[in-house]
């Protein structure tokens, strides 16, 4: 057996996107045939290379992280590795029994009991009936659902459901494991349980391909990382240094034009349209942000019909994806507010002497409380803050270890007098 | 997705036209079993009446047809008591119609699986059609009390003809499902046409009337419909009437042609399923 578990060779994937979706109506196709229109001539179509000439090897027993911005091709690569979709050109040679996990609980059915879903989900993930029987007790114990094992899962709490779903997946024993960000769900305790289990897998000589936005997880789970950008491999090496270079790169980009492009490409929503996200200091849009001045986060949006409970909010994160704070546009109101139809600008002001001099990420969300999210995923921008404020001014060049550096009201008074 | 230990898997663009990989389907037979098991369980769990639905559907159709077509319209029934006559015809037909409806929508209904896990996609329509066999089996059991009520018993030949007819129906509906399930993924509007076609098809098939009701010079044309010999033989064998083996052979040939062409079409589109769902 060769010591290369996964050999990826010049893999490219082309998607044709545009006004004409691939799933068309029969009527349209017939008219096209009659009118002798050719596929290529249709209006509004363009080609998108989700992956371009991607090559890399994964040695047996290694854990490799795949990182990159949204839309960099990570998911496409994962789908090809999982044989859900085919590459347009190139090939991948996989040696060994492989399991891939693009989400947990694939195929779970609410009407079926926990016991039945374990059997079904196990089979879908490629376990044999004997394997499912052997691991059944272990799975139930890991998920901590013993008492409800004969209850239909539609009566489970979200936490129980996720634990059961992950438990089945965690008890697969492949030689090669391909995992997407299944860890992005559940509460913190559950996430850390999943991470420990993943760590177990990775440290037992199994080959792992791990796609994630969670940089600390990539650094701790994977020895190596591959960085994808616009469908191409831009960097490859030991995970700590690739992650560092990736984070530096994300922080250094102005981010502004990207954000405009992301916003422009948001799918239309019947209720809500995000128009712009701007960072302002002293009334002007800027990328050169100083922590001595107030920073305004401006979210321009349009509401098409008066909606109860609509809110826009943001989270401030560091580059390692730790959420520092969250703030909601109507956070001080007591009752669910109504947002009238029309164009709006929500402006949050972060006071001077609050941020530290470090790079941050801002994630913009919109939603209707308890109903649904209004953006398919948060709009993300990265910005860097320079020191100019009062905090620590006496020590130039000093870098605070804190994620934020608010100016507190310190009083010092003699206590011996 | 799972492959055998020490196996070598090459992922590359596949040719547009390729045959079904029977070996692979065999390796995934447990998953096929689980799909059928799931569908049967879920269906009967969601209903108050549970398993009895499988019997209620053809039974009610029988009562309605017996009243309107038997009593009111006085359609002939080749000397067989009309309720029995129409129930015997409804048995293979209900299997065909339900399996065709479920089979055609099966792929679109399994989008969450198809976009997340690898398995031979052909298992989806195959299991949808196989699930219909369970209902058919239950409805067939109901024929016992019905025949007892009319004081008849199935003729011996039916123990051969009924299984043969059902196997051919299975192949036929699987062939159609291969075509239609893939087509529905590509062209979503096809899905709305199917129930309509099934409705018309039922009246084009001798269920509420015997084939002998059709003028002799047109019978050959009506019999091109592959469900005609199946329904006719199924019923004839139960009541000890002569069976037409040539007709069954015709249905079988149609089924084979559909399966071969349908699997080519299915495999051709299979490469795109995950991308367009």
Report the total helices of chain A: 9
CATH class of the largest domain in chain A: Alpha Beta
Assembly type: heterodimer
Query: H/E element string of chain B?
Result: EHHHHHHHHHHH
CATH architecture of the largest domain in chain A: 3-Layer(aba) Sandwich
Provide the structure class of chain A. alpha+beta
Percent of residues in β-strands of chain A: 25-35%
Please provide a written account of the structure.
- The complex is a heterodimer of chains A (417) and B (277).
- Chain A is of the alpha+beta class and 417 residues long.
- Chain A folds into two domains: 4-252, Rossmann fold (3-Layer(aba) Sandwich), CATH 3.40.50.300; 256-386, abc- transporter (atp binding component) like domain (Coagulation Factor XIII, Chain A, domain 1, Distorted Sandwich), CATH 2.70.50.
- Chain A is 25% helix and 33% strand.
- Chain A is built from nine helices and 21 strands.
- Chain A has helices at 26-35, 74-81, 114-124, 129-143, 158-170, 188-203, 215-221, 239-252, 256-264; strands at 4-18, 45-59, 63-67, 89-95, 98-101, 176-179, 207-211, 224-229, 232-238, 272-281, 284-285, 289-290, 295-303, 307-308, 310-317, 323-328, 338-339, 342-350, 359-368, 372-373, 379-386.
- In chain A, the strands form five sheets. A six-stranded mixed β-sheet of chain A has the order 5-6-7-3-8-9, with helices on both faces.
- In chain A, helix 3 (114-124) crosses helix 5, helix 4 (129-143) packs across helix 5 (158-170) and helix 5 runs parallel beside helix 6 (188-203).
- Chain A starts with a strand and ends in a 31-residue tail after the last strand.
- Mean pLDDT of chain A is 83; it is low at 18-23.
- Chain B is mainly alpha-helical.
- Chain B has one domain (34-276).
- Helices cover 70% and strands 1% of the residues of chain B.
- Chain B is built from eleven helices and one strand; from the N terminus they run E-H-H-H-H-H-H-H-H-H-H-H.
- Chain B has helices at residues 22-27, 29-45, 53-72, 82-109, 111-114, 123-149, 158-186, 190-204, 219-222, 227-238, 245-276; one strand at 8-11.
- The longest helix of chain B has 32 residues, at 245-276.
- At the A-B interface, helix 1, helix 2, strand 4, strand 5 and helix 3 of A face strand 1, helix 2, helix 5, helix 7 and helix 11 of B.
- Strand 4 of chain A pairs antiparallel with strand 1 (8-11) of chain B, so a sheet runs across the interface.
